[in-house]
TrEMBL record:
Gene3D superfamilies: Di-copper center containing domain from catechol oxidase. Transmembrane segments: none annotated. Residues 226-237 form the Tyrosinase copper-binding domain. Keywords: Metal-binding. SUPFAM superfamilies: Di-copper centre-containing domain. InterPro entries: Di-copper_centre_dom_sf, Tyrosinase/Hemocyanin, Tyrosinase_Cu-bd. PROSITE patterns: TYROSINASE_2. GO terms for molecular function: metal ion binding; oxidoreductase activity. It comes from Stylonychia lemnae. This is Tyrosinase. Pfam families: Tyrosinase.
């Protein structure tokens, strides 16, 4: 995702305005997919996303437009390297976990067809819902908790993006780990888009699998074609607003100049097509290509900080009752963090060599046993190498909390990093299928 303010305009404000411009639809508003509600945590997705048919007010029955979207025109993959082709033909219907939507080559089409045959409609819905539930609630991924954690990010800069949060986590090794909004956002893309944490709903070691499922929500090239995308992003915008309310930032906040993640050339920053390299991002940076109809100028972050100025608000939701921990609670958890936890840094994973989104799964080997530390979702694309705007932003970093092992020096501890990719799980350092890169920059170490 880009900066949350850009998403607000890109996907939500303009879309809502467009919907309202249709005759008879002037009161239409975009709903959000509440991802921490008791209902979602218990049942998975609301039925409106999975039902095959819907009945309209006049009694007529139509295909559910929120189940999938049919491409109006072909999507051409322009970087046919390594035998991978992410093209999708005109008329292609978007799919979600557990289905595969790969259709670039005849071979892909055939294997996707074979794969998809395993799941009748009921099975698809059951698996998708259990996947959503598992990612949100399982101890290993705890995505619902990650939403609560990101609300505690101390300032907008580190809340808004992974690179800035990484810098903060590197500099504050004695404090609890900061989770940027991008983290749970990415998890849900990957969850609906084809990564699963369990082959049969019970086995959870190792934590993550790809099982031939390739849903559209899981890749940047196609995510916005799945209708659920907008409901997900509306929720992300809601979490953003909640953060603003909790931190007294509903009318103004700051982007810390010079902080990693605030310049378009910084590692990990995904720039917009109209932005230049080495451009400082501040609240007055233009949000290409969104024009403020009232002024005729490009929107800036400052224009959209207060959503009430944009003319919308959010209905009742499960975060209404969420409160920041008190100072006492914070002091307690800080004490615990200093004594019990150490910060582990993983860096030097170059996403140019990994086709598609992936998960960094981190383990520690203790007494010969592989123990799960945590995982970080990387929402990427099949064609990083051909994506001009991705070229400066390839080095992926991840930060984890690990136990402080009494009497064991940090450099004697043994860690193992895995990349769970669309085409298998590989231990680092290793050579990916491009065979042109050997992860010589990869490192995994405790920051003492
Ligand atoms: Cu997104």
């Amino acid at each position: 995702m880009g900066y949350p303010t850009q998403e607000k305009l890109a996907y939500l404000h303009d879309l809502e305005k467009a919907l309202q411009s249709i005759e008879g639809c002037s009161s239409v508003t975009l709903p959000f997919l509440d991802q921490t509600s008791a209902e979602t945590l218990k049942n998975g997705l609301p039925w409106i996303f999975t039902q095959q048919k819907v009945i309209l007010d006049d009694g007529s029955e139509i295909d559910n437009p929120l189940l999938h979207y049919k491409l109006q025109t072909a999507l051409a993959d322009t970087a046919l390297i390594d035998g991978y082709d992410y093209s999708k033909p005109e008329g292609y219907q978007t799919v979600r976990y557990p289905l595969s939507g790969l259709s670039g080559t005849e071979e892909d089409k055939k294997s996707a067809e074979e794969h998809n045959k395993q799941f009748d409609y009921d099975k698809q819905v059951t698996l998708l819902n259990s996947n959503v539930r598992n990612w949100l609630t399982s101890q290993q991924t705890a995505v619902a908790d990650k939403y609560y954690q990101c609300l505690q990010a101390p300032n907008y800069t580190v809340f808004s993006n992974t690179t800035s949060a990484g810098k903060w986590n590197k500099d504050h090794t004695g404090a609890p780990l900061i989770i940027p909004l991008e983290n749970p956002h990415n998890w849900m893309h990957l969850c609906i888009g084809g990564f699963t944490d369990s082959k049969d709903g019970s086995v959870r070691d190792p934590i993550v699998y790809t099982v031939g499922s390739n849903g559209d929500m899981g890749e940047n090239e196609t995510a916005a074609f799945d209708p659920i995308f907008f409901f997900h992003h509306c929720w992300i915008d809601l979490v953003f607003w909640k953060w603003q309310q909790l931190h007294g930032a509903t009318t103004l906040f700051d982007i810390q100049q010079g902080y990693p993640g605030t310049n378009t050339s910084d590692t990990g920053v995904q720039v917009n097509a109209d932005q230049n390299e080495d451009e400082e991002l501040n609240i007055d940076s233009p949000l290409h290509p969104f024009i403020n109809q009232a002024t005729g100028a490009l929107y800036t972050t400052r224009d959209v900080i207060n959503i009430e100025n944009l003319g919308y608000s959010f209905g009742p939701n499960s975060l209404d009752s969420f409160q920041l921990p008190t100072d006492d609670q914070q002091a307690d958890s800080l004490k615990g963090a200093v004594v019990l936890k150490k910060r582990l840094e993983v860096r030097g994973i170059n996403r140019a060599y990994i086709k598609g989104s992936f998960i960094i799964a981190q383990y520690e080997i203790i007494d010969g046993e592989k123990q799960y530390v945590g995982a970080v979702p990387i929402l990427s694309r099949w064609n990083v190498q051909m994506c001009e705007n991705c070229q400066y932003h390839l080095d992926v970093q991840a930060y984890f909390e690990v136990e402080n092992l009494e009497g064991v020096p940090s450099d004697k501890r043994v860690f193992q990093t895995q990349c769970v990719t669309r085409y298998g799980t590989q231990n680092l350092p290793s050579v990916f299928r491009t065979e042109s890169y050997s992860y010589e920059d990869y490192s995994c170490q405790i920051l003492d």
